[in-house]
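Q&A log
Question type: sequence-to-structure
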Amino acid sequence: MFAVILTVGLAAAMRVAPTEGAALGVSIPRLEMVGPGRIEIDLAISGFQSGLHPALEGTITVGRHVIQAPLGPAVAAYLPGVLDLPAGTARLGGVAIFHFTPIPPLAENTQIAVEVTVRQESGVATARRTLMLPLPTVIVPGYLNDLGAEPDAEVVSALERRGYRATGASPTVFWFTYPSRRFGLADGAKALAAYVRRSVLPYIYAARINVVGYSEGGLLARWNLVFDPDWAHLVNSLAMVGVPNQGATGSYFYGWYPALASLAATPASRDMLPTYPFWRPESGAPWTTPEGGRNSSLELLNAQPLPEDVRIYAFYSSARRATWVGMTGSLPQVSFSYGPGDGIVLEASVLGLSINGGPAIPGLADRLIKVDLGDVHHLSLLRAAIPSIADVLTGRWVDASSP
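Response status: OK
Response body:
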């Protein structure tokens, strides 16, 4: 518990004329995070009459932290204030009016609840308002994301409708654009980690973040979870959408054609070659890996255990689309075998299951919270998944009633 005095009254900060003659009332027209750990709380009193000595009392709840406020004078009809969580200070007009025990950076989705009561002679009025603060979420798009100039507006809007903010002084959703054709997994993951340090952490008041990784983006996030020691403590949840955890046959097939070299014969495409056996010389022969088809980067990643305290979701398509599971013959004259998937990435690759008799990813399938999106093509998966992702990422709020 954090006991403080909610004395909102500095005459220099009050510019609104009294509203004499109106019925007594109070409202909270603004409750908003305006900077890392800084919450603006504005109060408006109708029927305010200074000669009747109106007084305020209130309670501010930040997750499990409760700030109790006894009576204090109200000296104007409009009272703008700022609660500074890291400093443990409430300010009015830039002047500190009370102090409380600082509240540390938020480690989970957090509800802020404000309840204010105004008393004026025998009149009493109360206002309540809440603000949901989701853990900041970083979206890591997939291969060739840098061909588009802007984040996917539909994806961002879906999160904004659930309480996220993509703009302003205290955003909670971030979009990482990276040169996917230039970076392999290791370099892409380093660039992601640098982006989080430079462009995310300085602008948030949270001890943990969520990450949404689409396609190759999920591999970059996984890489950091196992090779960057900070990420095991930083990431709360990882939502993987159509992630080729065991690669994709198309990475080999398309990379074979010189005309597609600028798009398909790149470090990233090579790091998404299958780790499962995907070629055989003729029908009925055992599946194997063709010459030059081994993926040592993804094999290294798949051999590492994931941190135990990170919640990991897998969003995928189980449709029996034309998803390549293997090739028979010699390029360019090959025939394809197919399996359930999204048209590019096999369901079993997303889930880390055995493919064509190859090894599964140790422990991955048992760790995943699986969400089957049904019949959705790979290129549409992120948009299809984002409402469900918003549900799971904002599904648990920390408030004073939580056990």
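Response note: Residues 137-393 form a domain with the Rossmann fold fold (CATH 3.40.50.1820).
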